[in-house]
Amino acid sequence: MKRPAGLTRPVTWSIAIILVLVVAVVVVLVVGLSTPDGTDNPARGGDTPGSVLSAKPMDDLPLLMKLGKVKGSVVQYVSTDSSGKRTRVSGTVFKPGGEAPAGGWPVVAVAHGTLGINTECGPSSSSDLHGLIGLAQGLLGAKYAVAIADYQGLGAAGVHPYLDSDTAGRNVIDSVRALRSVFDDISPRWGGFGSSQGGGAIWAADEDARTYAPELDLVGVVAGVPAADVVGLVAKARAGTLTRDQAPALQWIVEAAARSHPDIVRDDYRSGSAVTNWDVLSACAGPLVSRRNAAADALGPFDLAPRTDEAAARLTDLLRSYALPRKAISAPMYVLYGDADTYIDKAWTKAAVAKACALGDRLTISEQAGKGHGDIDLDNALPWLQSRFAGATSEQDC
């Protein structure tokens, strides 16, 4: 099935992950097949961020994970939204097979790109984690424990605050806490990787890590094509200059916002085909999703334009509250983006990076000529993160 139009296509570590997988296959074929136990010592209950509310062993792990004696679990855990309210969030956590190194398995938290705004859009609702299982396999083959948050409102019941990076970032941090509760021998040292929506989430997690989770040791994060600041979508909608890729993303922003913000009224932001196709455009699964790309193609240049100055101001203010940076990061960050991105304008990312540099952030920056949103070169991402775990100093490109 063709993936529905949204803010991102899945971004993967290509060559580096393939090499890791090849090595993993060679190694684990020696140890033979095993049936994984999904948890070691799950500590359930409590209301502090990261507390595990439920943990269900994954019995449908791919063959490579079974060969490697990987343990996997679908979890629900406590997290915190941007207002400080406790929430229930779901996700998946994994532990490599074999004996852990001294200090426990280091962790990579994966912050996924846009998959949708409805409950069924969370990675944990799919046996292949909506395409993320290969990335998880590669990281496990490289001997990292892996945590993949669904984000609030995806997977577990609730409203998903789409592109609220602060909330998603805390969901990511708390997925690491949940991983350490479910499995033994997990190190407090962790790194992060995210792309698009996940790029914004992992950036926000880096900003919050020092104060939100002082018991964990963040070594660095990779933020690919980060949705750091998309306030400019409102002005482009009013000017009729949204790209084909930006228009359906804006529809998801409006619909998600309307579910939790009474001042965001859907009819203030839709006309023409957006009215008749609204439910189709909101879908990520089920019978409507097959029509979503056609509905996105049918959008006219002003079908998602705010109808009044007041409506434009309300949506602008909301997106400003989501925008990054907000404060200095806790650990080095590697930012990668393309100068031909049709989802997130290059100028928006460059401005966010410049602000982060002004805050004193340590950034490795890769602006890639001719690359868009889903085809940036991420081959250096895993080696960069491995160097941070090894204690090497990262480049400062500010």
TrEMBL record:
One of the Pfam families matching this protein, by short name: LIP
Membrane-crossing residue ranges in chain numbering: 12-33
GO MF entry, a single one: triacylglycerol lipase activity
InterPro entries: AB_hydrolase_fold, Lipase_secreted
Keywords: Membrane, Transmembrane, Transmembrane helix
GO BP, sorted A to Z: lipid catabolic process
Coiled-coil segments: none
Designated name of the protein: Lipase family protein
